[in-house]
Amino acid sequence: MNDAPSTPLSVRNAIDTVLAQAAVPALSHTADTFKTGDPDAPLTGIVTTFLATADVIRQAADQGANLIITHEPTFYSAEDTDDLSWLEGDPVYQAKRRLIEDHGMVIWRFHDYWHMMRPDGIVTGLANLMGWTVDPPAVSMHDVMQMQAMTAGNGWDKRIAGAATGIATIPETSLVDLARQLKDRLGAASVRMIGPDDLSVRRVGLTLGALPGKMTIATLQRDDVDVVISGETREWETCEFLRDAEAFGRPKGMLVVGHALSEEPGMAYLAEWLRPLCPGVPVTHIPCGDPFRTV
């Protein structure tokens, strides 16, 4: 019998397990990297969240966790690279960095691979919250990225872009009633809506987060989609397509719930998904909340 103590699981071990389970082809460029802390530290607990705010960091530390898996950037930039020189000397950045270091917190981002899983982990989370079943997309977000759909339209193929969206079939309802359901389930202060109040809805495209306008429009161009749910959107792209669609007798709808609220359920689902992969490690979800208030 071997009485030697087992080697404790490190943060890096846990992340390696996550990526292996995701089963997504390795990306040559990804934001899913360690942002702070020592990845080789023994893992004491995991917190999932949409965004590692100061409050989330404090709550994670209070729970004894030393790994935060965040969906979006910790330091305010979409590029999310290691080059933070543009924040040098900024007191807000310095205070947040100090908070993270004082608690020995490791922050790792899980964005690209979580979206590229089939099914998309973020989409699954919202669908589970709403009690919906989502049709598996014909192509993955990985396929969309491969054709560089996110870069100035180069290589754009609307058939691929539209086919990458998860579509839910729901009991028939009106657009305004669907907006009310979302507002209630998400705990949103408000839901922004485009389209006729009485638009009949059965097929919902889950274009969550902040997808490019061309991808959201490609989803709306599908004959089997009545409405899309978005986190945030440029107001002169999809919004204006829908305004013109109604003006020319082809009404469809869009509900905009806010980026954080649209994707937080997917990070709550991540905590469920992680627990069997890290037995004996406390895994919890801490919502960061909607940064906006409505007056």
TrEMBL record:
Signal peptide: none
Sequence positions that bind a divalent metal cation: 71, 259, 263
Keywords: Metal-binding
Pfam families xref list: DUF34_NIF3
Keyword Phosphoprotein: no
One Gene Ontology cellular component: cytoplasm
UniProt cross-references to InterPro entries, sorted A to Z: DUF34/NIF3, DUF34/NIF3_sf
GO molecular function ontology, one term from the record: metal ion binding
Sequence similarity: Belongs to the GTP cyclohydrolase I type 2/NIF3 family.
Protein name as annotated: Nif3-like dinuclear metal center hexameric protein
Lineage, opening ranks: Bacteria, Thermotogati, Deinococcota, Deinococci, Deinococcales
